[in-house]
Amino acid sequence: MKKSIKLLSLVLVVILALGALTACGSKGSSNGTPTLEDIKKNGKIRIGVFSDKPPFGYVDADGKNQGFDVYIAKRFAKDLLGDENAVEFVLVEAASRVEYLETNKVDIILANFTVTDERKEKVDFTNPYMKCALGVVSPDGALITDVEQLKGKKLIVNKGTTAETYFTENYPDIELLKFDQNTEAFNALKDGRGDALAHDNTLLFAWALENPGFTTGVEALGNQDLIAPAVQKGNTELLNWINEELTKLGEENFIHEAYDATLLPVYGDTVDPESVVVEGGIVK
Questions:
Q1: pLDDT value at residue 31
Q2: How many domains, the chain?
């Protein structure tokens, strides 16, 4: 009887082990890194995007993903898998973008991901498709036009963003009110819990246009930042494919097409497209 129990236990262990290997194989290679072959075999590419950062990544009233990043993501899917709908959108927050790559929950992050040295240690960035800087938006009745005016006031930022890092490192005496989601952060500005909000200026320009009574008083802060897709650390194959894709898309001015389709209706003539768009992965 004891031998039978031991034999049964051994069989169960083997079955569970085989099942685990099969599950891993369906998501990526044996080391958890998604290869192009894995993606094509699955028939889907998993791309992390924002759900609440219009006009870059958001979910519309019909529950569909929309925005600048989403427009580009669909083209990636079309060129890799032959179908722009062969993309599985995975909703991320700013602070979860690195984790989702590290744990193989996504193949690519395409969520307004600013390239920084700190992030380069954990993920691999491709060539950029966009550029921006930090900005500060505040109510017209108490407009902030200089960072020095923030001393003694509460500044709203999102966790895991370059805004949080910049103010923590350069202005430690400014009190930061931190939120996970963009919606929470902007609601806090609207109801007066904070005096101003710092984020990418490209986002703030769009938000202020749609929210009368608020102005981006500090339009550019710090250095010009680059925004790029990111892949799991060491995934050179996928990184090279994206860089080649961006080069090809540059030949047809596709990123400008994405701008015209998603950002121009919001910005109008208030923003110069050349201050935002990076075509072909090359900053000019």
A1: 53
A2: 2
